[in-house]
Structure to design on (477 residues):
């Protein structure tokens, strides 16, 4: 049977750090990039006699995550000990949730041109992160700064059928988490990463195949490549008459292949039991409702509104809503503008360009959104040209002066005096008799030459609409 006769079955386990200032059970900082083992204390290092104290804000962010993903929030959940032995786990167990997670069920709808695809969730649970192993040439080191950082694990049902769908799911989930302020989603820092469960089966089959788990993927590209490789590996193995073993694999980005890490553990391997040092977690219904009322507009709702209210294309909507900061900036540009498309194009090109170049959010990298709106209103009123607006924008990024002041200081105001423009047109026509003759004999493309010459004569400040109107009349006579 050819590869086309199979289909992939994919489920994702996403681990995302919660955006708190302190760790889950102690007061140590969660700041990324500190010197190794600087953000540690006896609690997160698992010293004898210490006791955990739960971070309330982490619970609130977990509830926010559950509400945003349509999960059922448990009013009573329990923390468990998950026992395993690894160098970056100082206690030799991890405080997590197992049988009674804080969130059950839920779903995420993936954006699409046609009918959207719904990916169901199994659970959302709170747990502490482990540390980080650093492998060097002749040694292995451990940095415990990350140990105890609060995270939620978001487990999907095996509803995904391709690497593209898996990446689309991750992008949408990451966008939701960033919109609601639950996580910064910085994959390069490890604060948003996932384990991928992949199996294949013949098309039309209802039973799942044997799955392989690929651990700790922290980029969309790695997820896509790892799934594509693993699907191909399993199909090739089955076609050769072999059997897929249930294993945990690691992704090798240099060789672009997965490699066995260990045989897959099962729940009983971790010897879960209720955490004796923590009471049950009780989440009042009033807290859940308060979170629900305060929920910001989510990406899917914003996308639908931009199409409905602004008439933007799918591409424009995707760019403007990819980050909450971008959408907020775009909407702050709009007041008083007649043409929404102009604002959309300006934010997508000029604003996002300076944001990307600086690595900062639009509001930090570009001038204030209200001033960009004022600049575009000057273009709409034909007081400055579009090129002049770009010149002013570049200056405003540095000076932070208003649009009006910048245009005045740089002398960018557009000339709309018809007598002055008519004089310039007449001068150009007089100086170019050969070109005029060619134009009048049928070479219409020369019209652009005349426009350019008039604009050059007037220092680029002439109103192009008026230039076109006067030139057409003069060249026709």
């Amino acid at each position: 049977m050819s590869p086309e006769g199979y289909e992939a079955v994919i489920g994702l386990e996403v681990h995302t750090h919660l955006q708190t200032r302190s760790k889950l059970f102690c007061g140590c900082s969660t700041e990324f990039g500190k010197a190794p083992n600087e953000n540690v204390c006896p609690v997160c290092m698992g010293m004898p006699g210490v006791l955990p104290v739960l971070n309330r804000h982490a619970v609130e962010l977990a509830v926010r995550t559950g509400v945003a993903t349509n999960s059922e929030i448990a009013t009573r959940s329990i923390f468990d000990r998950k026992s395993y032995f690894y160098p970056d786990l100082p206690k030799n167990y991890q405080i997590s949730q197992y049988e009674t997670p804080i969130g059950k069920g839920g779903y995420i709808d993936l954006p699409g041109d046609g009918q959207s695809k719904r990916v169901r969730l199994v659970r959302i649970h709170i747990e502490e992160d482990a540390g980080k192993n650093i492998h060097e040439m002749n040694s292995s080191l451990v940095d415990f700064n990350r140990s105890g950082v609060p995270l939620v694990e978001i487990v999907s049902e095996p509803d995904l059928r391709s690497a593209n769908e898996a990446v689309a799911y991750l992008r949408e989930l990451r966008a939701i988490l960033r919109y609601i302020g639950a996580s910064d989603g910085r994959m390069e820092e490890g604060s948003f990463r996932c384990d991928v469960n992949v199996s294949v089966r013949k098309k039309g089959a209802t039973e799942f195949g044997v799955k392989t788990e690929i651990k700790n993927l922290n980029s969309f590209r790695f997820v896509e490549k790892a799934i594509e490789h693993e699907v191909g590996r399993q199909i090739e193995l089955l076609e050769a008459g072999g059997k897929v073993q249930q294993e945990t694999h690691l992704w090798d980005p240099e060789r672009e292949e997965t490699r066995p890490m260990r045989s897959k553990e099962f729940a009983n391997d971790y010897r879960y039991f209720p955490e004796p040092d923590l009471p049950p977690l009780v989440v009042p219904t009033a807290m859940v409702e308060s979170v629900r009322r305060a929920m910001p507009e989510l990406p899917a709702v914003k996308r639908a509104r931009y199409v409905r209210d602004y008439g933007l294309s799918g591409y424009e909507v995707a760019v403007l809503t990819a980050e909450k900061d971008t959408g907020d900036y775009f909407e702050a540009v709009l007041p008083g503008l007649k043409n929404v498309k102009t604002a959309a194009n300006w934010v997508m090109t000029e604003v996002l360009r300076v944001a990307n170049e600086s690595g900062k959010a639009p509001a930090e990298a570009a001038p204030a959104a209200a001033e960009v709106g004022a600049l575009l209103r000057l273009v709409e009123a034909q007081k400055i040209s579009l090129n002049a607006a770009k010149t002013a924008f570049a200056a405003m990024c540095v000076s932070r002066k208003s649009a009006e002041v910048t245009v005045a200081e740089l002398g960018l105001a557009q000339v709309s005096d018809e007598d002055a423009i008519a004089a310039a047109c007449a001068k150009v026509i007089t100086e170019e008799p050969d070109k005029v003759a060619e134009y009048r004999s049928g070479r219409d493309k020369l019209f652009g030459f005349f426009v350019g010459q008039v604009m050059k004569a007037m220092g680029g400040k002439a109103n192009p609409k008026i230039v076109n109107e006067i030139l057409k009349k003069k060249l026709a006579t």
About this structure: The two ends are 76 Å apart (CA to CA). The first strand starts at residue 6 and ends at 17. The chain has 16 helices and 17 strands. The mean pLDDT is 92.
